[in-house]
Amino acid sequence: MVPGALAYSIFKTLSKSSQPFCKLVRHQSPKLLGCHFYATHKRFYRRTEIIQNNDKWEITLDHRRLKTPNGKVLKVGSEQLARAIAAEWDAQDETIAQPSMHLTALCNTALDNPGKLTSHDITTYMIEYLSTDTLFFYSDEEKDLRVLQEQKWGPVLEWFEKRFGIKQEISHDLEPPPVSIKTREALARHFLSYDFAALNAFTFGMEALKSPVLMLACVDRYLEPTEAVLLSRLEEEYQLVRWGRVPWAHELNQAELTARVAASCLVIHAAVEKNSLSVKNRSEQGS
Predict the structure, then answer these.
(1) Between 283 and 73, where is the model more confident?
(2) Residue 106, Cα to own-chain centre: how many angstroms?
(3) Nearest residue to 101 (alpha-carbon basis) of 115, 85, 80
(4) How far apart (Å, rounded) are the C-alpha atoms in residues 287 and 224?
(5) What is residue 275's predicted lDDT score, i.e. its pLDDT?
(6) Distance between first and last Cα of the chain
């Protein structure tokens, strides 16, 4: 169950992170940002609203139902998620900035499934990704950096091991550390407890952080998205303190990563809430 306060907190993080990105991204060179730009469209609607259709929620743009790229009506199982998607569309200015609309993109991908993936496919991918987790690689060349990694990453790794009842080795070079069968089995069971939409969001957040562990910590509410992003960028921030930073570029990148992770968390928590309500309703009907 996702408390309303938590959903609101996540959406505030998402809104604060993505809106500056939307405004700045329009005025920067694609080459400088190093990102892919989609074709832009002028805003063609005035109002965004949500409607309930049985146990699903839909988003409307001037009373027309929002659809996915494949023409399916975009339906979600959570009112909070529907409101957040509607707010995402309402926040657009004269031009619709598609790369900033992470919630819409995640829900479109889950519904259309352009890669024809299964939950097992995504689970396998995330478990294989684990051996390259950012938190598993400590510096072997810079002592100060290694001390910082131990201080900042150590508590998260301890949480990870305790949470799943496993032990994980750390690498001090470029060789990925081994991931035990017990760890793989524990994570496989955990990931497969989520539905397809949630797993798709897990992947999105995990790739932004380059860390399944940090994404798991966010979903379990051990970390806030802003904290997870800072931890994922620990080595980069360490180097920036030494060599300096471009005034706007690093903050822009951090805001974008935070928006991606916050969007992923909101989709996952909405899926968990929906499943929890379904289980509760079945239990009440059977009693």
Answers:
(1) 73
(2) 9
(3) 85
(4) 38
(5) 63
(6) 21
- The dihedral sign for the CA sequence 200, 205, 210, 213: negative
111 touches 74 (CB < 8 A): yes
d(CA 279, CA 283): 6
Query: What SS3 state is found at 3?
Result: coil
Query: Nearest Cα to 200, choosing from 263, 279, 256?
Result: 263
Neighbouring-strand partners of residue 96? 41
For 225-254, give one letter per residue: b (16+ CB within 10 A) or e.
bbbbbbbbbbbeebeeeeeeeeeeeeebbb
Identity of the amino acid at 234:
L
Q: Is 194 left (phi over 0), alpha (psi -120 to 50) or beta?
A: beta
> What type of residue is 58?
E
Q: Are 38 and 108 in contact (CB under 8 A)?
A: no
User: Alpha-carbon torsion 102, 108, 109, 110, what sign?
Assistant: positive
0.85 exceeded by the pTM?
A: no
Q: With contact defined as beta carbons under 8 Å apart, do 167 and 180 qualify?
A: yes
